[in-house]
Predict the 3D structure of the following.
Amino acid sequence: MKAAASARLILTRLHEVMASRLHAQAKLDQVVEIIGESLTSEVCSIYLLREGALELFATRGLNPDAVHVTRLGLGEGLIGTIAKNIETLNLAEAKAHPEFLYHPETGEEKFHSFAGVPIVYRERAVGALSVQHVEPRRYEDVEIEALQTTAMILSELIAHKELVDLEHPLDLAELPSGPEMIDGLALVKGLSEGVAVFHQPRVEIDQVVAEDTEAERQRVYRAFDKMRDQIDAMGKEPEFGKGGEHDDVLETYKMFAYDEGWSRRINEAIDSGLTAEAAIERVQQRTRMRMREIDDPLLADRMHDLEDLSNRLLRIVSGQLGTAARQGLRRDSILVARNLGPAELLEYDRRRLKGVVLEEGSLTAHMVIVARAMDIPVLGRAKGVLRRVNEGDEVLLDADKGCITLRPSPPMREAFDARFAKKRERQAAYAELRDVEPFTRCGTRINVMMNAGLRDDMSSLAMTGADGVGLFRTEFQFLVSSTLPQRDRQTRLYRDVLDAAGDKPVIFRTIDIGGDKAVPYIDASMGEREENPAMGWRALRLSLERGGLLKAQARSLLEAASGRTLNVMFPMVSEPWEFDAAKEVFDEQLAWLKDRRKRLPEEIRYGAMLEVPALAEVLDLMLPKLSFLSVGTNDLTQFLFAADRANPKLAERYDWMSPSILRFLQRIAKGVVGHPVDLSVCGEMGGRRLEALALLGIGYRRLSITPASVGPIKELVRKIDLDELSGVMQGWLASPPPDMRVALQDWAAEREIETD
Ligand code: PEP
Ligand code: MG
């Protein structure tokens, strides 16, 4: 309460200044005094954006002569970094920060601690507010919050044009213009184009300081009630009625909507004197800040769901209700958002929604999973997109390459259109291959299967004409769920998947949880931070230790496959005994079902993934146990090269076309010859045309790949003469050319086989 009371005092004083008839410069001068005094900080400064640079507009504690003299570019020094990244800095020792820049004219050399927050207007940083202190200390949370609240007030002054009488006009009206490219992370691949539409026409917060705190509290209560009703109603909507991942999303929403911690924090912000809107925004800002600090992608996803709800609450309380979905898309549109919830995505008209660009986003976000099922390209982590794009701008989205072009020039558009046309042509040709069996020119049938992980993915089986599901990643159900999926829920999913597959086989891989695929409700590392999670306590290691998990999964799979064939595959098998131990769990569950005269699967086939190199050395001991063996090249290559597959810096460091990998893979293929074991590759490597060519050339006849690659790989298969290809690959592996990739590309080009 003490913190709230002091925050309230600051607000009241700031409010008085704002309401006063002082001219703009005098207002700013007073603001820095009030903040400096309240936080007992020797220095408080305001920088505002003018003519492309952050200019010192007011200060208490720095040399007054530096006002309107000190200027920093975006990204320059601590202030520039705050504005560029829209981030808060809280440093006990400013000089220790890599971006620290000393400005002699300010006289700031004697100050050690530093805290600064961005002043944000319409998602763009238009300035920064900072405090400095002689003693090295980190500022407390309440102090940072006071700064953030003050920054909100300053942006309110800006919104109300109360700073326009400044002698030096600010850069506020300037809209981004001219072509611009922004790189991002391809979350769902694809190409598309349209006009930029902001998912949320921004909620303008007109008033930050409350006049009647109790009235604000009531407004928030009512808004919470309304939001909870909306969420309960969502459960009755058709897309949420199907079970599976949508249920999980809804569960997460409910968890937050009824979370007392969240409503309490908003109430505390109201206690400090803010209006309902400003309080919701404040708490949201703080959550965003925390999110940046937490390096846990899964937790970050849950936080995105919270942000989704927070926006909803803000819209309800302010009465500014419409998202772009409600207003309806009038043209082909590329949706731009900080983040998007899955439910919000589903509100859009599928025919007009051509793509999504997010400031944030991650591969495991619920929304991405839904977008993939809807076949909508998504680019994530497009830094600064909300500031750099204007509503209505033309956008070319290239989620294959991982970038967007804003306001393209005619040559840019032409190049994009050409790429797009070529892609469409190819896709049409691939679609025609749907019912065509992939035989090579020499008459060998190649098995082209697809990878899947969710119920929604199964529609791709019919669409692509894949031969089956060569890898069903069962952990996906765990990843999209906020609680441990219980046995009946698992059984339902596996049964639905088998129903959807019909006569085609499905290989269920038991959970590969742990490492980067962490779930909050299973503490894989048992409280210990793992230095190398990819080589850590994951997959089968975890399943064997947590017997209950594997037991439940075994029973679910056995029950779901009653009367049918069940294919079970164990991930990350390093030694044969691990396979035996896992199979024993299935045997026990089978015996249990038999005792109870339950209907059993007609046939059970067991297989292993080969992704730990050690297993290759004991292949002779392993093979008699197996019906199939699937090489997981994603993990295998990271272990062979000691190169973290999740580290983008290392992505270029090794090549699937390197002789070491191909020789290794060839050795496995040769080792399997003569054994009744189906050998396949189920890593990403098999979905790339050149790599697939190499795999076929070294003896692989089964590939399980991402659905979008099924058509392209089928087409490739039909152009190949295996005898000729294996001949050339044998020669190259015995005596490698300088660059295997280039050599095979040239070989393919001579035969008019496209490899990219
Ligand atoms: C692999 O490692 O190649 C694989 C298919 O498994 P995942 O990508 O799920 O680890
Ligand atoms: Mg793997």
In short: Residues 238-245 have pLDDT under 50 and may be disordered. The longest helix spans residues 410-432. The pocket of magnesium ion (ligand 2) is lined by residues 571, 611, 632, 634-635 (CB under 6 Å). The radius of gyration is 29 Å.
